[in-house]
């Protein structure tokens, strides 16, 4: 079984989250940028699914290259009920192969590709969702978690 890389990232409050923080099943989802339309849709869907996810014993973390301050603003603006982790140097994103060349509006640039990992307390990757669609992802995630 593939392992989630060792990591140590700050959340929006400056608290360290690492592999040691993983208890039970954890959803770690990577998204391009705070307060953009797709990322807001995805984050709000996660927020609205949190009661079900918590009932399933699942913890959720969102990860992007944004700063703690941007994460705090994003959380406050949309009433998010889970932590956002700061990967400003994209080390974790690169280690997982979710950071690299992208195209949007005819421009090429480096960024995070929307990807979600379900990880257990031993850092085993139970499932990887690639090319995630922002709008329907929370339902897709719940379906997988209910099966397992």
Automatic annotation (TrEMBL):
Its EC number is 1.11.1.24. PROSITE patterns: THIOREDOXIN_2. The active site is at 39 (cysteine sulfenic acid (-soh) intermediate). One of its GO terms (molecular function) is thioredoxin peroxidase activity. One of its GO terms (biological process) is cell redox homeostasis. Residues 1-148 form the Thioredoxin domain. The keyword Oxidoreductase applies. InterPro entries: AhpC/TSA (IPR000866), Peroxiredoxin_AhpC-typ (IPR024706), Peroxiredoxin_BCP/PrxQ (IPR050924), Thioredoxin-like_sf (IPR036249), Thioredoxin_domain (IPR013766). Keywords: Antioxidant, Disulfide bond, Oxidoreductase, Peroxidase, Redox-active center. It catalyses: a hydroperoxide + [thioredoxin]-dithiol = an alcohol + [thioredoxin]-disulfide + H2O. GO terms for cellular component: cytoplasm. The keyword Oxidoreductase applies. It comes from the Bacteria. CDD domains: PRX_BCP (cd03017). Monomer. Thiol-specific peroxidase that catalyzes the reduction of hydrogen peroxide and organic hydroperoxides to water and alcohols, respectively. Plays a role in cell protection against oxidative stress by detoxifying peroxides and as sensor of hydrogen peroxide-mediated signaling events. Belongs to the peroxiredoxin family. BCP/PrxQ subfamily. This is thioredoxin-dependent peroxiredoxin. It comes from Jeotgalicoccus saudimassiliensis.
